[in-house]
């Protein structure tokens, strides 16, 4: 097949435009050539450590220039990156590392405790901190001059209705098509510069990295979101595009007060769940161009985005599917929903994952006849614009992080005092949503809310720990004993 | 494979941005939705005529809105377009129609004589003129909602060293990747508008059509190149990009005199053979941004282009290969040439043809291990910029048209008074190059230059007819009797 191979992305970019700025991080600015040279050195170190083409390597790092270098170094070697969410607990991380059969784990120096726990539990894995890695004498790396678009580039874990996280396989082709699909929608110009303060371990952040190299565009990388620094850097670094989730945009709107973003700023690409209409209206008032979008780890970032000319006219819509992608609204009987009628959002396209790592059954369940079943509910208007009504009935989106109730319920039920547990999202002014738990206690055993929270904290990332607990007699279940989370939400 | 299918291009574009202008032609402007509706109707007529998915249909048309509609209508039906050069003689056309096994031929009303000749010679083919087609009652067309990137979209004929034209298969994927590769190089913006006055039957023109639909960008279509209309329309229609060959650019530079192109004009994309340095320097002086490029029918348009930032620094270079593509300079011993050393230009990438229609041997000869052997000579400088030294030793490029000496030689030898003939290119101020013929006459038979010219005119497109004739005793041939065209050029 002719369409399968392509030059290694960073090598090609460094060859095409070596002197363009690739990345701004803290006080540094690196050209693509400098980034490439640093990456070659890092790949030599990783090879000296023992990493080889085709292996899986866990990456547990913060937003940092070094992370960018390591991620590209893995691409040079043909090693697949299992990109881990650094907010997870050691137990959660061990689970994902085992599941992905990762041979190595590269992690922050400050994650010593995590490293210890992982080393106790996960023997066949070799861990190394960032600073130890930097002390290794680099070998001459065996560089993959070409990539195969069907090969796995990255693995990102996402939970599902079962509560067990699944590794989403993202191929080089998925990232490439996502990137070019977005370019055809937003346009690309020489003056473009993309601000990334969303995590690199999420597809929202990682996709900016890929766009930077594919477009030949600088990215401004922040360690984390800081509203004043955002406003300052947009001006200073001439940022034209920024990826945001609702809570970030809310803070920007508030912090701006009477100020305006500069004219060269082209758009806020808004993902991570439907945005409240008042926020979008506030942005219109402050002349902040917002492009709503809809996507997920499985679609390698946005798959539906509102075009520039429709961003005002269709406020609240996520737009239309990117050029290479397709979307349908399917009714329970398998037919297409008429416009205005709700149904399950199903999508197709070269940016959609080929499936879940080592999970053929889950893959078959979610991808049927080439269509990926998102589980989300939405409808199309007469012109074909998507309105996302409800994310997967069980999904809680909190500050851009996806939280799956089943995972929290499983943790809660492990507590000796808990017979049954149900979790749902409740509205939160700052985070959009936060999880709340309904608990059925064992008779005669006392347990406090604080105790349950502490119990969760040891097992779950902090953002997953319920913010509210309700003790009840019995959970609402249907005849088949299936938990009716809809009912829980009504109860809140 | 996930990367194989995509929505039908025009359907998708009309869905995404129905109200954007698709095309300006004469006094008309059509939106993508209007273009789509017209195309659906045309496809209903073509279906009523008998055209079906998978067939080949010859297209012998001029640059016109109707041509655009017919070309897209064929895509809607899944019919492959054999796009014919309307400057060819009936005999040449018959050859290509037979070779491609075309079932239909759609042609201009004014090509009556051509139609007659074709109908006499090529029985299994059904011909229909444009105006007769427009009178057919349209059926409800069976529309291909999806395209397969590996399917043939178009066939364009190109001659070779043998003198027999070969049909270059261009897949949907070839056009897609060419289009996105170019977008990543030049950028795409909402304000873009591309002027097409090069023929739609050449890849230079057809590729603008594809970009228009893929980018959602208007194209201004001219019937032919007219320098004053060009300058006027650039201003009036806010043209930002124009595809040119050397002779067109020369005329623009001269006609501009003291005038300047407007500031919004971004670039002249210059193809069709190496440009003379004085022309490029004149453009610098007049502030006309020129991006030199290198490509051919087999690469579905440019495969190497000079980036904006290098266009002045590397004057005379064709640039670097587009992002998805690769290039090497190969020595005769199969090794890579060092920088500065001449060798054969070989290229690879998803925009490169899978091969020649019904010509497996020619395909194997030109495409080896995934690399396409262009036959052109060039070298790379130390930074990897391509300098094209010489097109295929036997190729004459005249005003953007490729002329293969072997084809003219074969025509000349058919004359009873000619024993042997050799053709080479001579420099020409207006056309860059024109063919010149060296003739060995039969003893005792008289033949005039006028007679030979007339003989050629009946068999070859006008631009292929030699402008100069030299009668000689013997052609320069090597021991293996191979014609040494290099010698001929020295003799001129």
CATH topology of the largest domain in chain A: Rossmann fold
Work out the helix count of chain A.
15
Number of domains of chain A: 3
What's the helical proportion of residues of chain A? Answer: 25-40%
Q: Greatest contact pair? A: A-B, 42 and 42 residues
The tally of beta strands of chain A, per DSSP, is: 28
- The quaternary structure here is homodimer
Assigned CATH architecture of the largest domain in chain A: 3-Layer(aba) Sandwich
Task: Name the CATH superfamily assignment of the largest domain in chain A.
Answer: ANL, N-terminal domain
Gross morphology of chain A: globular
Mean pLDDT of chain A: 92
CATH class of the largest domain in chain A: Alpha Beta
Ends distance of chain A: 55 Å
**What characterizes the major β-sheet of chain A?**
9 strands, mixed
Q: Gist?
A:
2 copies of one chain form a homodimer. By secondary structure, chain A is an alpha/beta fold.
Explain what the structure shows.
2 copies of one chain form a homodimer. Chain A has 492 residues and is α/β, with parallel strands linked by helices. Chain A has 3 domains: 5-148, Rossmann fold, CATH 3.40.50; 174-337 and 378-390, ANL, N-terminal domain (Rossmann fold); 396-491, GMP Synthetase, Chain A, domain 3 (2-Layer Sandwich). Chain A has 15 helices and 28 strands. In chain A, the strands form 6 sheets. The first copy, chain A, has a 9-stranded mixed β-sheet with strand order 3-2-12-11-13-14-15-16-17, with helices on both faces. In chain A, helix 2 (32-49) packs across helix 3 (65-77). The model of chain A has no long low-confidence stretch (mean pLDDT 92). Chains A, B: GO terms for molecular function: ATP binding; medium-chain fatty acid-CoA ligase activity; o-succinylbenzoate-CoA ligase activity. Chains A, B: It comes from Neobacillus cucumis. Chains A, B: This is 2-succinylbenzoate--CoA ligase.
């Amino acid at each position: 097949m002719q369409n399968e191979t392509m030059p290694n992305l960073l090598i090609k970019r460094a060859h095409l435009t070596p002197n363009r700025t690739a990345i701004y991080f803290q006080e540094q600015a690196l050209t693509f050539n400098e980034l490439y040279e640093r990456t070659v050195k890092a790949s030599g170190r990783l090879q000296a450590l023992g990493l080889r083409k085709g292996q899986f390597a866990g990456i547990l790092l913060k937003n940092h220039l070094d992370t960018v270098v390591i991620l590209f170094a893995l691409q040079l070697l043909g090693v697949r990156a299992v990109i881990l969410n650094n907010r997870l607990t050691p137990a959660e991380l061990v689970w994902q590392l085992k599941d992905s059969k990762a041979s190595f784990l590269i992690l922050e120096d400050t994650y010593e405790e995590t490293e210890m726990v992982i080393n106790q539990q996960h023997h066949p894995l070799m861990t190394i901190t960032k600073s130890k890695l930097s002390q290794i004498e680099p070998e001459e790396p065996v560089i993959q001059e070409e990539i195969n678009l069907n090969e796995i580039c990255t693995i990102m874990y996402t939970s599902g209705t079962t509560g067990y996280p699944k590794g989403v396989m993202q191929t080089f082709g998925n990232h490439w098509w996502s990137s070019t699909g977005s370019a055809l929608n937003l346009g690309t110009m020489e003056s473009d510069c993309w601000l990334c303060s969303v995590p690199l371990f999420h597809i929202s952040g990682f996709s900016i990295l890929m766009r930077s190299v594919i477009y030949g565009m600088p990215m401004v990388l922040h360690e984390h979101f800081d509203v004043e620094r955002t406003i300052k850097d947009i001006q200073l670094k001439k940022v034209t595009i920024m990826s945001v989730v609702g809570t970030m945009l809310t803070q920007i709107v508030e912090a701006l007060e009477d100020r305006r973003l500069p004219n060269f700023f082209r758009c806020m690409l808004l993902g991570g769940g439907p945005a409240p209409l008042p926020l979008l209206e506030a942005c219109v008032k402050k002349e902040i161009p917002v492009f709503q979008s809809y996507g997920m780890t499985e679609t390698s970032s946005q798959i539906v985005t509102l075009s520039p000319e429709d961003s005002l006219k269709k406020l609240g819509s996520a737009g239309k599917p990117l050029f290479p992608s397709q979307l349908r609204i399917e009714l329970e009987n398998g037919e297409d929903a008429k416009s205005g009628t709700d149904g399950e959002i199903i999508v197709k396209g070269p940016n959609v994952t080929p499936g879940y790592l080592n999970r053929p059954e889950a893959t078959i369940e979610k991808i049927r006849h080439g269509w990926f079943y998102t589980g989300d509910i939405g409808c199309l208007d007469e012109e074909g614009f998507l309105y996302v009504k409800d994310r997967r009935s069980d999904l809680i989106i909190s500050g851009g992080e996806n939280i799956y109730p089943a995972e929290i319920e499983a943790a809660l039920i492990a507590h000796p005092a808990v017979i049954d547990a149900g979790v749902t999202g409740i509205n939160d002014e700052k985070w959009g949503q936060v999880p709340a738990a309904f608990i059925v206690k064992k008779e005669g055993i006392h347990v406090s809310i604080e105790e349950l929270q502490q119990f969760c904290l040891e097992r779950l990332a902090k953002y997953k720990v319920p913010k509210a607990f309700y003790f009840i007699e019995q959970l609402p279940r249907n005849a088949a004993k299936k938990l009716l989370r809809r009912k829980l939400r009504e109860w809140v």
